[in-house]
Design a protein that fits this description.
The protein is of the alpha+beta class. The chain is 21% helix and 35% strand. The radius of gyration is 28 Å and the shape is elongated.
Length: 355
């Protein structure tokens, strides 16, 4: 009888606290009742994150003495482990109770890793909710192109996850190379779209949703040159959100990006000729009359992005992050820029603008 009692006691799986459970680090798939879920936890000091496959909104549970809990809501209780399987009870906080069943994923079995909650394995089901869309072809002057995008819309999710890019519809190797460059990181080497990785990184770092918006559009197309503006606004778990816009100039013949500074005397952006700097500051100062709080910041700027625009070349300030809202752009005509251009620049501007 003594031997039998010992044997039976060994078959009883004890309930574990949050500190003792294999849920201290890893990735799991399973279900609450009949509802499939995915679960992750970086380590024993991190919150536990999970989402229902039918919804995708990531929920955050904190460890307590009996398991895990959502503030003012559900509880995970009586957690028991056997090999790679974890069972327990899910309580709604309003009297409802369901069975909880989890199985460790191939990646991160029982392992603490700061990347668990940013790993593609945790987001496999959510990735199926990313929607791909192609828009009908459209024209920008003589340029034929179309927009395509990835979007992730989740129930109960307030932030936006949108990645919209353009595809040139012109034939030739040049446009083909540009399309390949514009598609870079649309999907990453690990198979995750860039927008979903941003969301994952923010969740892993802070336990809060990411925010990712990127949109492209042509703003200049004439002769062999094309300017594409990329506007962005994102929070991917860093020290602060990032937002702004940048314009890249492409050569449709070679498919390579063009450095417009090479059309200027000296061919560098480090230091503008004094006369060109004064011309720019005068134009920017006139624009700043409506924004007096930004005037001093813009006046001190000495770094510019340059790009081809409708009437000549545009110069965009590059202010520090804390002054980012004050960034501005001034366009100078081809005629006013002529004294500052080298031989190639004069030739190119003559071909583009007739001046």
């Amino acid at each position: 009888m003594k031997l039998l009692s010992v044997t039976l006691s060994m078959l009883v799986l004890p309930a574990l606290s949050a500190a003792q459970t294999p849920l201290s680090g890893g990735i799991w798939h399973g279900a609450i009742g009949a509802l499939p879920i995915s679960v992750c936890r970086n380590d024993a000091e991190s919150p536990l994150l999970y989402y229902y496959h039918s919804q995708g909104k990531v929920l955050r549970l904190e460890a307590d003495k009996e398991g895990f809990a959502l503030a003012g809501g559900e509880r995970w209780r009586k957690l028991r482990a056997q090999g790679d399987t974890i069972s327990g009870e899910w309580h709604s906080g309003k009297g409802k109770q369901l069975a909880l069943q989890l199985k460790a994923a191939a990646h991160g079995k029982h392992e603490a890793d700061e990347r668990n909650c940013a790993h593609p394995v945790f987001y496999q089901a959510m990735q199926k909710k990313v929607q791909y869309r192609e828009e009908p072809p459209q024209q920008f002057g003589a340029l034929a192109y179309r927009n395509y995008s990835l979007r992730l819309a989740l129930e109960g999710f307030n932030a936006q996850l949108l990645d919209q890019r353009i595809e040139l519809l012109a034939p030739g190797d040049g446009p083909k190379r540009i399309n390949q460059a514009l598609r870079k990181e649309f999907k990453l080497a690990n198979g995750m779209p860039a927008l979903l990785e941003c969301h994952a990184t923010a969740l892993a770092a802070h336990g809060q949703d990411g925010d990712y918006t990127q949109e492209m559009k042509p703003v200049f197309a004439r002769g062999p040159y094309l300017s594409i503006e990329t506007s962005y606004s994102n929070f991917c778990g860093g020290a602060h959100p990032a937002s702004g816009a940048m314009v890249d100039v492409w050569d449709l013949r070679s498919g390579q990006m063009l450095d417009v500074w090479r059309w200027f005397q000296g061919g560098k952006a480090e230091r503008l000729p004094p006369k060109l700097e004064r011309l720019l500051q005068e134009k920017l100062a006139r624009a700043q009359k409506e924004h007096p709080d930004c005037a001093a910041e813009v006046a001190q700027n000495r770094s510019f992005r340059v790009w081809l625009s409708a009437n000549g070349i545009s110069f965009s300030t590059q202010l520090p992050y804390v002054s980012h809202a004050c960034d501005d752009t001034a366009e100078l005509s081809a005629d006013s820029l002529r004294p500052f251009l080298n031989a190639r620049g004069k030739q190119e501007m003559q071909a583009l603008f007739g001046k």
